[in-house]
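Checklist before submission:
- one chain only
- standard amino acids only
- sequence pasted in full

Submission:
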Amino acid sequence: MSNLPEPSNNERENLSKAGQKNYSAAIRTAVIGGTVSLLFALLAIATLFIEHSDSAGPGFFVLGFLAIAVLLISGFIVILISLAGVINYATMLNRNKDSREESINGITKSVGLILGIVLALLIAVKLLNIIW
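Returned file contents:
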């Protein structure tokens, strides 16, 4: 394995750009998914006031289910994109010893994003358990 050819500068740049694109795509997906989920949750709460009844109607449950589904699906996608970023930076770390610090920073950012999403999902589940 130590007889691998040295990667060119172009290959190093491509791996670095791919890792940065993964991170920015993961952040964008998390923000969009969280916003859409919040909007569905607000619409679900708004149906409680619009329907003028004593109990929650089907609109509340459908929109609430959509809010939870969007949050879970976007969280899962963010985790997958971040794992791809970790793999990208690990590949760059193995192939290029010169950019060791950049690779470690990229891996740290991606793992931190994964942990943040998992923590946010656990908090959402805990809040749902308190509410229901």
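Reviewer check: Residues 51 and 57 are 8 Å apart (CA to CA).
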